[in-house]
Amino acid sequence: MRRTLALIALAALPVAVLAVFFVLPVCGMVSRGFADGPGAVLSVLARPRVHRVLWFTVWSAGVATALSVVLGLPAAYALHRLAWPGQRVVRAALLVPFVLPTVVVGVAFRQLLGESGPLGFLGLEGTAAGIVAGLVFFNVAVVIRTVGSAWESLDARTGEAAAALGAGPATVFRTVTLPALRPAIVSASTVVFLFCATGFGVVLTMGGLRYSSVETEIYLLTTNLLDLQAAAALSILQLVVVTVLLAIAARVRTTPGVRRSVARPRRPRRQDVPVLIATAALLALVAAPLLTLLAGSLRSGDHWSLANYRALGTPGTALLVPVTSALATSLRTAVDATWMALLLGGLVTVVVTRRSQGRAERRLRGVLDGFFMLPIGVSAVTLGFGLLITLGSFRDSPLLVPIAQALVALPLVVRILVPVLGGVDDRLRQAAASLGAGPLRQFLTVDLPVVWKPLLAAAGFAFTVSLGEFGATSFLARDEHPTLPVVIFRLIGHPGAMNYGMALAASVVLAAATAVVMLLVERLRVPSIGSF
């Protein structure tokens, strides 16, 4: 009974926060969708425009997922099975796009594919192909990290035995390596499809009114058309689909198939040249939008200048506040969201990783674990929309945006910390307790030395997620205190060379801030992105 009460006490705060700021908004959104009965939801889903939105969401996410896998597999092999100079730098560089704010990715591709951009001659600006390219750019890192981690865990002796029996490299890959990697590839593909289908900022920035995904349609229905019931109906559909995809990903992730490697990464051979060339090409494709974004931010008219950056300090016709004030707001919000996510995630991790004694305690921990993972199944746009319609009286609170961003980052924090803290041998804590150490002393002497690096990595991920979060924040941010992603979107939505130049400069500042944090996190060697 004492252990059960302690478990309930630890879980009380995160349970209360999720109940008020997640369950209540989601239930309010569901009830709004069914306000006029199930027939209202079906009538929304029967609209021709909704059919076009659903079809575009499915096929664009499917094509982007396939391209991400095709481009990511060679890089996963080169970065996780081979050893060559500069490997860690390239690996970190290919991770950066995944943590960039989606609105920054959209602006970068608009600059790259625009009429005055290096690839403007292709005519891809504002097209479905351009949106797919942006989604691939954003998500190929998931394939590299997820499949790469599985690849370096494969037992190399199986492939070597097949080669010794006369199988060529292609046969070894098809008959030995690929079957062993299939669970990781399917898991990565599921997660990438989910991210592509919910790529709010990329589609909204690049698609405009011509192309719309489910998330951008929810945003437009809410902010432009004030059709809250239709937005709620689409949110319900998205919630069901996302939950199913995450259940599939979790089921595949538990599929056995890899063993620890017995061979260290080897130096490249002649047959590895095509793979290295493909990796170099992918690096160039990743660098092109970012370099174009940087170059565009340094252009003012026909000459090089820092005018766009100097203009960030003064409000313009499209803004009520200077961009520098928006950056300060983003940083303050990110700090608040980070400590909230770490506090909630730390408590959740302790609750779900302690060894259970008895069936009742084990069942209680299982229920709490499932409850704490609920935010994984809801996109940021749906969460922001739910908070908007259910907690309208709380909207002016400066804590609402950090809380929403903390809930978005919470699953990522938990996925990083749970494998680490769950791997600590409970007998060490029991030994410390037998020597008179209390719970706090046990944590400081047993758990903290193991978890401090992943804790820093979780803080870095939570900070970057908050810094670039756009889906929920676009509903909740106040006009006088916008975050930087919201300001960037407003700038590109207003005509004028100065507004667009300021958007480019602000995007560079935001991209640099997130990239620096994630390059530091990469040195901590956290678990693969696709593991959550």
TrEMBL record:
Family, as annotated: Belongs to the binding-protein-dependent transport system permease family.
Keyword field: Cell inner membrane, Cell membrane, Membrane, Transmembrane, Transmembrane helix, Transport
Annotated localization: Cell inner membrane; Cell membrane
Coiled coil stretches, renumbered: none
Name of the molecule in the record: Iron ABC transporter permease
ABC transmembrane type-1 domain mapped to chain residues: 54-249, 327-521
InterPro entries associated with the record: MetI-like (IPR000515), MetI-like_sf (IPR035906)
UniProt topology in membrane: Multi-pass membrane protein
Regions crossing the membrane: 59-80, 92-113, 119-144, 184-209, 229-252, 273-295, 337-354, 366-391, 403-424, 455-477, 497-521
